[in-house]
Amino acid sequence: MPNGSGTTVQDINKFMNSYEMTKKMMKNVQNNKGGMKNALRGLDMNSLKNMKF
Predict the structure, then answer these.
(1) Taking the model in full, what pTM does it have?
(2) Does position 1 have pLDDT exceeding 60, yes or no?
(3) Given this model, what pLDDT does residue 14 score?
(4) SS3 breakdown of the chain: % helix, strand, coil, rounded to 5?
């Protein structure tokens, strides 16, 4: 029987946080006419800096 993908809970949490931040940013870009600067206003920049792609 297979043991799964080997993905850790921490990896999933990082992915989910990244997804939620991206979703929020895209929604802000869509709704704001001020551009990317206004879209990034509500995001936690420390979390964004620590993301690894």
Answers:
(1) 0.53
(2) no
(3) 92
(4) 60, 0, 40
